[in-house]
Amino acid sequence: MTSCVLSKLVLSSTRRPLSAMALEPTHSAHFSFQAPYSLDSPAQRFSPIEHLALDGPSNTHKLSSFGMDAQALGVPDFGATEPFKLFPSETIEIINSELEKHAHETTFRSPPFAPCVMRGLAHKSEFIRDLWNAPQLQALLSSIVGIPIEPHPMAFERAHINVQEQKYSDSELVEVMKQNDDATGEEQPVFGWHTDSQPLVCITMLSDVPEDAVGGETHIQKADGEVLKLQFPAAGYSYLLQGSVIPHAAMPALNYNRVTMITSFVPTNPLFCEKTDLDLAIKYSPADALTDEFVKYRCDYMSKRLKLLKRCSTSDGVEFCENLLDEIMADLKHTKDSLSRVKDTLTK
Questions:
Q1: Is the pTM of the predicted complex or chain greater than 0.90?
Q2: 219: β partners
Q3: pLDDT at residue number 182
Q4: CA–CA distance, 75 with 344 (Å, rounded to integer)
């Protein structure tokens, strides 16, 4: 997420809150995806009372504690949570049964960072769709971040599944441990240091974690280079990360299979910049359906910003209008450039 003038104004306490003006929330042979999408009729209906754990995290890290200037970046002063229980065991069982039910039509094998991923579950599973759309869940995550947030409007960016197979057998791991006092420290990430194009991600563990688990952490990097390691203690635990500004890397699970579910979130207020692109997603998603969602989402996002411009008053000043126009023009260029890179990727 790049620094945006208007989002800095939203976060500033020295100016009339502009958030008051914001609108209300409102190519692989192994991959098969049919459109239009039709949701199944789940055996179990989603219930926020039964299927969510809403106590929240015991520890949250601010960007400022990582040595980052949230105001200068134009983002809330939120960095990451420690893993916390978000879903009861019954919910995880239902989610995994939904994964099994839709595996054939949502699985893409051998993307750049995992043996396989699953895409489009929010199109296929009513339970998973309703889970991530739950107002109670959005309210909890918004309270953690410090601003209203909502699930990414692109359904492909909800309930993305990464499947990571254990790297070593028990006997192989013993040999590795003999050679290194800390085998994990010698391992290369399965997904190297990067930032996300989506503002925030909620990552949930779906598979069991053995007591003697080795590896599988998410490493996040502070401004001074120090690394914080996030490790899931069990299935049903999640953490929230502002991955658009914090470099992070996924480490290999050395002695267990690691299955995670990733859902992206965006600020509800359109004055915050949002720079989702398709650079990575196009490598493991059906191109036509993905780009269709992307174009519609970007149009809706820019339309909200144009409506804000239309509602500008003299109290906001000419400078505000100029800044908003500059950002909308940058939004158009970002959208076009992202689609151009998709075309280049598909024609290689």
A1: no
A2: 229, 249
A3: 52
A4: 31
Tell me what pLDDT residue 116 has. 83
Q: What DSSP string describes 304-339?
A: HHHHHHHT--TTTHHHHHHHHHHHHHHHHHHHHHHH
| DSSP reduced 3-state for 287 | helix
Closest by CA to 137, choosing from 238, 279, 63, 213, is 238
Give me the residue label for tokens 């006092």.
181
Tokens representing 125?
């599973």
Domains of the chain: 5-36+43-347 (2.60.120.620)
Predicted pLDDT of residue 110: 65
> Which of 129, 138, 140, 212 has the alpha carbon at shortest distance from 170?
212
Asked whether the beta carbons of 66 and 222 are under 8 A apart, the reply is: yes
Distance (Å, whole) CA 137 – CA 140: 5
The single-letter code of the amino acid at 100 is E
Classify 167 as helix, strand or coil.
coil
- In the block, residue with structure tokens 């600020």: 267
Q: Residue 83 has what pLDDT?
A: 97
Tell me whether the omega of the peptide bond preceding residue 36 falls within 30 degrees of 0, making it cis.
yes
How many CB atoms sit inside 10 A of residue 318's CB? 9
How far apart, in whole angstroms, are the C-alpha atoms of residue 178 and residue 168? 14
- State the chain's maximal CA–CA distance in angstroms: 72
Q: For the chain (length 348 residues), average pLDDT per consecutive 10? A: 61 42 33 44 84 97 96 94 97 95 84 78 96 98 97 97 79 68 61 90 95 89 95 96 94 89 96 92 91 97 92 77 92 96 89
Look at residue 5 in the predicted model and tell me its pLDDT.
Answer: 66
